[in-house]
């Protein structure tokens, strides 16, 4: 069909044909031919070492006269104990409260004067400083970062304030229906493993955190031996390394350092095999948040292409199976999607949507029907082809901004895969067919493996669950969920 | 997993407006190279070539927003935005997205008080298709509207309202603010999302009328940005858009409000499923790009931009009374709003926080602003201007923003200068002007909170 369209359009252009009674040219009836496509590859990542051994992974990019980077330390949520969950988050906030004898306000003024930005964040596997600056102020910005990371200011007043902020953030999350749903799903899937918690912790775990614990965390993990620098921007190698060596590169390394032993650090979580329907009551809520999740094995190069392709077809775009059904066919929701969280040790695959309260049961039935249909019949060629194209397009998005590039370097580094892994794996994705993904799809969409969390008006939800196809609930016991104290 | 925080919600409530402000101040030395022209049918075309990635963006602004809605049709402009994806004869129901995604391209749209923008992006090979899809619906959407399509998208939009406003902590703040700061006969009264009641009333005829009146080449501007050959792009634009006739009916656009503004506002208290009380002080402020608009942006930064800012120091550092505090100039074409918001920690009387806010406002009005303090704030604007030019999607929208507000595609330098040339006394004078005007106070209290 495509080829015929091209010829047809060519004729239209020559004769300028229009439809009778309408100014619309006939060539508007057919989709035009595509333009020429150009190749995309992941930009070259340079690897250098500073005087003290810190690795620097960097990309030269002069799109704008600016620089973005991250200084990452291996730590993060996985190093936290259940009793003190939230410590990484609190430490990360505390690290922006000034340095040496400079207060947080003075630090903020210094950043403003440079037109630069410094911030901290935590992830599951790391705690990091992010920095951005104009090209001309990169040297000064990195010097400021170096002071900040080496000489944090441990002010009890600042700690008390941040501690109180975190307690309130935890309380806020517990009023937000999406957060409530995700937190309960994490609990249901992972129990007391660290992946069963939010980074901000629980009311009980945050309550007793102390400045001493924050200092110890800093001493244990925020160290040059644990650091990796990733930088993208308008820089030349000599200038970059010179600025870095004069600052971060002079941070003293201790040869004897070893990361503290953390019980269960590399333990693969044990999943609760009894899958449930958990209802969290929000009386009179106008919508029900539906999240469904199932545990999957940690990131594996071999399973990634098929799982990713299935994910994007099921819920990764506007025309995905879920969004087309729940939004465009039935109007139950504003959006429906799927996503996956993958670490080295474990991960989970998740479906999420918010539906009008009185359509909760119908929406669950529709998801069930779609999954069952795909399990039985597989995907169509069109669905698989679209998924491949969308994944290809995501590669472009993944190298769009300096921050995107940084995130790619960091994410691949943490998973221990090459920085251009996703670009290379696209070739494998492009070879997939409906038949070749059928087996994995069958496993991924197996209804019995899902925990279902429903956050909304309990009475209304319970009444609807009684009326729907019993297969939707199948063997899953229904219980009223509570958030951890 | 990193969850939502108060800082997120402070930002998310104002993200749309804030992004425009940041973009406004793009660095003069970094203008966006472009070529612009007007088709015979009145469509403004702006081309910006950037071949660094195999990516293209098509960004189309229709110069119609919620301000142009008829009475008792609140939410119509936004509902219409949804209907624009519902298909024509050439591209039947649902095919718009399916065709696009088959090529790995995506799209979205947003509606504000003043305009509606549609943008699609994807691999450069998709450009002719993206242009064809936009042109097709610019011409043919109205004739293909049906009751079924309208009913479905009405449901979706009502769910959007439930999800973003009604089922969110503090979700009704913006609606309350807009419906109280603006008089009932002001074009901005109501909300962009609309009321359930008005959304239910919309008819297929309303849709067709709205399309005929506003969705036409002489009421739109088209930006194509990214990796394309200039001559080819011009050829495609000519081929797909040039034949579309100009609109035949007169365009009725909302005019500057000439009615009476309230002399005073009644304080409003709402109860919600929230953990902390929220206090907001809201004012009318200078409209987008008018004198005083940039100055009020600078005032917002002086008050709450970073840890050395005045209200952060007063309310968080000297007294640990608030969880977070933010100030924003929310700029729009006819009138703007200036808002200060604070989430108050448990046990702290709201009036004590208000008193400190008032003291800081008073200081800003009465005491000279140090050059150094203002320079720091301006430096951040300069810097963020550079960063705002990083993404192709942003650049495309920026060009259309300039075309709409400045009647030329390149307004970057002019915009930044508004910030850089603002003197301490001008900033102070505008702060005095705005803060001396009538103020609307809104409190959102946790359910069960007696105060």
How would you sum up this structure, described in words?
Chain A has 485 residues and is α+β, with helices and mostly antiparallel strands. Chain A folds into 3 domains: 1-36, no CATH class; 46-250, 2-Layer Sandwich (Cytochrome Bc1 Complex, Chain A, domain 1), CATH 3.30.830; 277-480, Cytochrome Bc1 Complex, Chain A, domain 1 (2-Layer Sandwich). Chain A is 43% helix and 18% strand. Chain A is built from 18 helices and 12 strands. Chain A has a 6-stranded mixed beta sheet with strand order 1-2-6-3-5-4, sandwiched between helices. In chain A, strand 1 (46-49) and strand 2 form a beta hairpin. In chain A, helix 2 crosses helix 5, helix 4 runs parallel beside helix 9 and helix 11 (321-329) packs antiparallel against helix 12. The radius of gyration of chain A is 26 Å and the shape is globular. The termini of chain A are far apart. With 451 residues, chain B is of the alpha+beta class. Chain B has 2 domains: 10-241, Cytochrome Bc1 Complex, Chain A, domain 1 (2-Layer Sandwich), CATH 3.30.830; 268-446, Cytochrome Bc1 Complex, Chain A, domain 1 (2-Layer Sandwich), CATH 3.30.830.10. In chain B, 44% of the residues lie in helices and 17% in strands. Chain B contains 17 helices and 11 strands. Chain B has a 6-stranded mixed beta sheet with strand order 1-2-6-3-5-4, with helices on both faces. In chain B, strands 7-11-8-10-9 form a 5-stranded mixed beta sheet, sandwiched between helices. In chain B, strand 9 (322-330) and strand 10 form a beta hairpin. In chain B, helix 5 packs parallel to helix 10 and helix 11 crosses helix 17. The longest helix of chain B is centred in the middle third of the chain and has 20 residues, at 147-166. The two termini of chain B are 35 Å apart. At the A-B interface, helix 3, strand 4, strand 5, helix 5 and helix 6 of A face helix 4, helix 5, helix 6, helix 10 and helix 12 of B.
